[in-house]
Amino acid sequence: NLLDRDTFSKSDPLCVLYTQGVESKQWREFGRTEVIDNTLNPDFVRKYILDYFFEEKQNLRFDIYDIDSKSPDLAKHDFLGQTFCTLGEIVGSPGSRLEKPLGGIPGKNCGTIILTAEELGNCRDCATMQFCANKLDKKDFFGRSDPFMVFYRSNEDGTFTICHKTEVVKNTLNPVWQPFTIPVRALCNGDYDRSIKVEVYDWDRDGSHDFIGEFTTSYRELSRGQSQFNVYEVVNPKKKLKKRRYINSGTVTLLSFSVEAEHTFLDYIKAGTQIHFTVAIDFTASNGNPSQSTSLHYMNPYQMNAYAMALKAVGEIIQDYDSDKMFPALGFGAKLPPDGRVSHEFPLNGNVDNPYCNGMEGILEAYHESLKTVQLYGPTNFAPVINHVARYAAAVQDGSQYFVLLIITDGVISDMAQTKEAIVNAAKLPMSIIIVGVGQAEFDAMVELDGDDVRISSRGKLAERDIVQFVPFRDYMDRTGNHVLSMARLAKDVLAEIPEQLILYMKARGIKPNQTPPDYSPPGLSPTPTV
Predict the structure, then answer these.
(1) DSSP letters for 102-145
(2) Torsion 117-516-511-450 (CA) sign
(3) Which residues form a coiled coil (predicted)?
(4) Which neighbouring-strand residues pair with 16?
């Protein structure tokens, strides 16, 4: 229902997409659709191909114009309205379809724009295959050969790149190799007819493996599976030249072939997986008295403190993937009114039955309010808030929900053993933990929890996946005072691992994107209130 700007006929609309630079906040024209003549309900064919990053806030602006002449200058055409959104909002909407009103012309209803996103499937399949060989040439003086195979994909320029090596099967001329799985891209770069070269060798301990022979095939041939077409003669070209009666150096047979799509983060989001965001804030005395400017919790009327900045940077991105925008916000390590008991998981809004805050603004407001009422105390215990989120995650393990806990802390942890135990248990659940360390403390304990170098373990049990990502806030403070840019970098680094962590969970549980059931509230837990 676009505005009609033409006197004698309907508008001739065109849509222009602008993207915004992270640093400059300058809008840049990204592209234009085609013009569709005489319609107020255009369905544009030309698509925009954008790079998508879960960990970035990618602002988009869509402007609609009524095109009246051949001029490329938009100022010479009638403006019909515009809308703003993020790429995350589009992909995070049900079915990755977002409907928004067009605005920008005061007092006018400018109609609606419908945005849909789909991921370009640049061949995400993985092939699993198994081979055996018969009557290979004997290369070893004393025993039989020890054969293995090497696979190469051919490049555009006719050269070959190694893409797979089988294991060595010892002392046999009729080996059966283990099945192996390889991305189809790695085998043929998505071109099914490109040739694949396979060389067969006899393994020698000193590394001077003897060449037995080679054959070529293609992905298309292999994908026919076990058949007479997939029995290959292994030929040694030198022998073939020398010996008139040479036939081959054995044969290789394809025993089985199957192909499976590798699912991406967006496949799950599009199928309806919701990401639930919970925040936990450190209210221990080591942060300093909030009324003093040296405190990490200091409320400066002119500038956000480190806690608020880290919260906003991460939360603004994650909120696009949570349909109700209601987030539980917890505090730990404070004495609560009226009786001064110490709590390690108290709701920032003071409501034990409903710790949910409405959007980022709601969380920041509750955080500021709670600083006025609670007394900073200690010790610094992480395990209670991790177990709090784990209880919710344990109730929905069907892939329809994934939980992200953001802990912001000054880093001096008191319950290391319990926290490790909590993380090892949480690694089995649909959840990830982000820790942002503020202040100048030594964060050695936090680095240990982030299992990038050494996988975390508790009482001899290794965590099933690495689910913790830690970053120190001070590494992102921009010397020039450009907080926007430094916070975008912080969010990028803490969120970058989450898509992979979500996929690993789904894979380990054998959950495919289209199987995710619709939303439901786990029994015995307060359902997320709708507002």
Answers:
(1) -B-STT----EEEEE--------EEEEEEEEEESPPP--SSS--
(2) positive
(3) none
(4) 32, 63
CA distance 499 to 264: 8
Angle, helices 416-426 vs 383-395, to 10°: value is: 20
* DSSP-assigned states of every residue in 442-483: --HHHHHHSTTSS--EETTEEPSS--EEEEEGGGG--TT--H
3-class DSSP state of 88: helix
3-state secondary structure of 330: strand
Q: Is the distance from CB of 274 to CB of 324 less than 8 angstroms?
A: no
How many angstroms separate the first and last alpha carbons of the chain?
A: 29
Q: What is the DSSP pairing of strand 431-437 with strand 401-409?
A: parallel
Alpha-carbon gap, residue 367 to 344, rounded angstroms: 15
Q: Using CA atoms, how far apart are residues 492 and 499, in angstroms rounded to an integer?
A: 12
Give the chain's residues under pLDDT 50. 516-531
Closest residue by Cα to residue 422 from 392, 466, 382, 471: 382
Specify which residues 470 forms β-bridges with.
435
Cis omega before residue 338 (within 30°)? yes
**pTM of the predicted model as reported, rounded to 2 decimal places:** 0.74
> Over the stretch 97-149, which tens digit does the pLDDT of each residue have?
999 999 999 999 999 999 999 887 666 789 999 999 999 998 877 778 999 99
Distance between CA atoms of residues 278 and 362, nearest Å: 13
Single out the residue of 15, 1, 12 nearest to residue 82, CA to CA: 15
Alpha-helix residue ranges (DSSP H) falling in 352-467: 359-373, 383-395, 416-426, 444-449
